[in-house]
Amino acid sequence: MKNNVVEYKKLQSGDDSKFSQLVLLFNKEFESPNLNFVNSKNIRNLLINPKFVCFVACIDNKIVGGLTAYELEMYDQEGSSMYIYDLAVGKEYQRNGIGSRLVHEIIDFCKSKGIQDLFVQADGVDQHAIKFYKKIGGEQSETFQFSFNPLQMK
């Protein structure tokens, strides 16, 4: 990896194929049961949504990492918060600063928009993610997440 130049890019409308590559990387790294599934319709819609942000890391036009985030407009404070939804770097490219740089890309983006709150969730069993976020300056908080499937609820 030493001789490879990593390029970082914020995806925009029309970058559907790059976003699709990132989704396939997410599927692989997150061990998704359907490794080849990409929802092309949603990808197109997300890339035109101004409240959705996606940064990718590329080497020789190959996506090697990326993150997705959502800007959440707040009703109880001025401005917005930014939520990092997914972040992954291909196993063979990890521990080279790519993940840290992706987080700094979203931090710089937030600064440019005056967004003061950026947050991300990590599962308690994912110690690798927890150590990573602590290492790059994240402050851990005690939060519990509850999930519901409305389609299965009475």
In short:
This protein is an alpha+beta fold and 154 residues long. The protein contains four helices and five strands.
Q: Can you walk through the features of this model?
A:
Residues 6-154 form the N-acetyltransferase domain. Keywords: Acyltransferase, Transferase. This is GNAT family N-acetyltransferase. Pfam families: Acetyltransf_1. It comes from Cytobacillus citreus. There is one protein chain. The chain has helices spanning 16-29, 40-47, 98-113, 127-135, and strands at residues 7-10, 52-59, 62-73, 80-89, 117-120. The chain is an alpha+beta fold and 154 residues long. The chain has a five-stranded mixed sheet with strand order 1-2-3-4-5. The longest helix has 16 residues, at 98-113. A hairpin with a 6-residue loop joins strand 3 (62-73) and strand 4 (80-89). It is built from four helices and five strands.
Sheet-strand content, in percent, reads 15-25%
Please give the alpha-carbon distance between the first and last residues. Answer: 52 Å
Residue runs with pLDDT of under 50 for 5 or more positions:
none
Query: Count of helical segments?
Result: 4
Could you tell me the radius of gyration in angstroms? Answer: 16 Å
Mean pLDDT: 91
Main pleated-sheet profile = 5 strands, mixed
The largest beta-sheet arranges its strands as: 1-2-3-4-5
Number of strands: 5
Spell the H/E element sequence: EHHEEEHEH
**SS-based structural class?**
alpha+beta
Shape: globular
Helix-residue proportion: 25-40%
Keywords: Acyltransferase, Transferase
Protein name: GNAT family N-acetyltransferase
InterPro entries: Acyl_CoA_acyltransferase (IPR016181), GNAT_dom (IPR000182), N-term/lysine_N-AcTrnsfr (IPR051556)
